[in-house]
Amino acid sequence: MELEIVQDLDKFNDYVLKHQPTNIMQTSYWAQLKNEDWQAHYLFFKKNQETVGSALLLERKAFLSYSFFYCSRGMITDFSNEEQVKKIITLIKNYTKKHHGFVCRFDPEIAYSIKDCRTLVELDNNKDIYKMLNKYAHSTGLSKSLDGSFQPRYQMVVNLKNADLKNNIKPKKRRLVNDNYLKTRGFEIIDATNPDGIKEFARLSHLTEIRQGIALRNEHYFMKMYDIFKQKHFIKVFMAQVNIDDLIGYNDTLNNSEEEIKRLKALQLEDGNIINTNAIICLYGTNMVQMFYGASDERFAKYKAGYKLHFQAMEDALEHGYDNFNLGGVAGTLDDGLFKFKTEFHPELWEYLGDFDIINNKFIYFLFEKALPIFKKIRKRVRNNGSN
Hints:
Distance between the termini: 53 Å
Strand content: 25-35%
CATH topology of the largest domain: Aminopeptidase
CATH architecture of the largest domain: 3-Layer(aba) Sandwich
Radius of gyration: 23 Å
Largest sheet: 9 strands, mixed
Number of domains: 2
Number of strands: 17
Low-confidence stretches: 382-388
CATH class of the largest domain: Alpha Beta
Shape: elongated
Strand order of the largest sheet: 8-7-16-10-15-14-13-12-11
């Protein structure tokens, strides 16, 4: 088997998007999004002149002359072919070592286990692949923490091929996705895939930062994502907005709503009559739509527009022929608010294989493993202080 450095990015992306297991994070579009901090390496793996695999490697300078390499949601090849996987890992090891990489981390788009999110009954698993990869690379472990791996190991994925979307929702919450529920309260879901929509998403994201005491991406990052992925129509922004006059009119029909009406009128004076309350950014291109980011205005949380917002995005994916809709990550302890909310849509719980490291320099890798948790704590503290 041979390694080929790919120059034709259209050819590279075409291969990535047409082969499994794939992810948008293995395309040149993702590399372009990350190019302020990471240098991209595009690789094909050839056997008898035929391409049998690919890998986007992102390189980031670490310390001294050493680099950290990351193959996000890759590589792409037939993981049932152990000999082929072994040879590809060897080629990646030699390539990254030549480029002063002390390690190359990869986390394939493969589930270790797939379960029903409500009953936790296992529907499928790839534990044999996990064991096989452990023979040729070092697993960092089956972490249950949201930040215990580069990408969340536990993700909630709606199987659109077999889904009756509305009936999959718990009966008590099903009314929240009906058109009339939000309409009677003055809400509507709009397509905000445009620069103004991105600016509004960034504003809502900042509100989320303040509320949760965390640091998220800024407007520059979201606008860059939009500019890159809009070229291929690989991005959509779904947004919930409310007409305050209509919402006041709804509350006027309720008993004991004087305080709420007073509150809404104050918000109207402050922010205007039309206010954006919830938004999500979804990326397309593969057979799975991925909800990458979500944000909301807590002042309107009681009206639960997020249910219809996510439901409409899923309906849109189903109508356009996608197989799966990824609602994003949750903690593996399955006890946080994200898990509770996403479970309402009855997705499958995908526990991914996690991170594997191809180690080139054991000493530098040892220092890296010791320093990384400390760095994460410092970065989290600095970011949180900056969000206050």
